[in-house]
Amino acid sequence: xxxxxxxxxxxxxxxxxxxxxxxxxxxxxxxxxxxxxxxxxxxxxxxxxxxxxxxxxxxxxxxxxxxxxxxxxxxxxxxxxxxxxxxxxxxxxxxxxxxxxxxxxxxxxxxxxxx
Length: 115
Prior knowledge:
By secondary structure, the protein is mostly beta strands. The protein is built from no helices and 10 strands.
């Protein structure tokens, strides 16, 4: 699997965070959610895989999960696993904090991925 990196911002403070430490950004033609927890940034799908709730309108729980505002389903920020027991999976994206800025990685599709 190959990852293509896209620069999101120069610094964490350059991102327009909501009061709940989350936001939605468009990068590489996709809307994704970001969550800030301490000095770490997590990137994931902007809609809940269950009923399409906007995750950036939810909250970050103390245990490191994002909670959907519609039905309170919770997902691990690091790996997207559903922690409230419903069996859904949230798409996550790798984040790198580099000297020149913050980058989000997207899997590059190859013809092998269509088989």
